[in-house]
Design a protein that fits this description.
- It is found in: Cytoplasm.
- The protein is mainly β and 191 residues long.
- It folds into three domains: 59 residues, SH3 type barrels; 58 residues, OB fold (Dihydrolipoamide Acetyltransferase, E2P) (Beta Barrel), CATH 2.40.50.140; 62 residues, Nucleic acid-binding proteins (OB fold (Dihydrolipoamide Acetyltransferase, E2P), Beta Barrel), CATH 2.40.50.
- Helix content is 2%, strand content 54%.
- It has one helix and 16 strands.
- The strands form four sheets. The protein has a five-stranded antiparallel beta sheet with strand order 9-8-7-10-11.
- It is flat, with a radius of gyration of 21 Å.
- 19% of the residues are buried.
């Protein structure tokens, strides 16, 4: 058990018998009156957000989640199916995947996150390479400063086709590297 004052953003704790990830932490108070911690959290099982205020000496169980390398296999409406190297299949609900939906591609390797023996989400590699499937051509004379345009990238599910801001020189069919944490263009990948 850890006191609230030792819990950091990104820690997974049990609140009312539910696993919650701490997304943001604001501290108020003084050493004389005692500190309070206002946390913005997300339930790992239902993806519902929650905000709550705790005293610095409130204690919480810290949860360590299991992770296992898996490969994205297919979409079986409304579940996404992943397979490990032993051909075990894990089904994850669409709402639990979050932004990972934008980058999933058949055969993509990632890590499944398990809580209590059940796959609850996936973690993607930090950077991935994706082909640009549509991008407006650059307009001549539109080159002053850091000018960006939208580019649609390939992924497994057409309904979740995603756009990324890219420089003007990026064109359709280019392969670009993207940071999955920030959804930012990194560079053009040369083959």
């Amino acid at each position: 058990m850890k006191p609230a004052k030792e819990i950091r953003v990104g820690n997974i704790i049990m609140v009312d018998s539910k696993p919650m990830i701490v997304l943001r932490s604001d501290v108020n108070g003084s050493s004389r009156t005692g500190f309070t911690y206002k946390w913005k959290m997300k339930n790992l099982l239902t993806n519902t957000p929650m905000e709550n205020v705790f005293r610095g000496d409130d204690k919480f169980d810290v949860v360590v989640l299991d992770k296992k390398p898996v490969t994205y296999s297919y979409f079986a409406d409304p579940l996404y199916v992943f397979m490990d190297e032993e051909y075990n299949q894990y089904e994850i609900e669409e709402e639990n995947l979050g932004d990972a939906l934008h980058y999933l591609k058949d055969g993509m390797e990632c890590e499944a996150v398990f809580y209590d023996g059940k796959a609850i989400s996936v973690e993607l590699p930090i950077t991935i390479a994706r082909q640009v499937v549509y991008s407006e051509p650059a307009v001549k004379g539109n080159t002053s400063g850091n000018v960006l345009k939208e580019a649609k990238i390939e992924n497994a599910v057409e309904a979740h086709r995603h756009t990324v801001q890219v420089p003007l020189f990026v064109s359709q069919d280019d392969v670009i590297e993207i940071d999955t944490r920030t959804n930012e263009y990194k560079r053009v990948v040369r083959n």
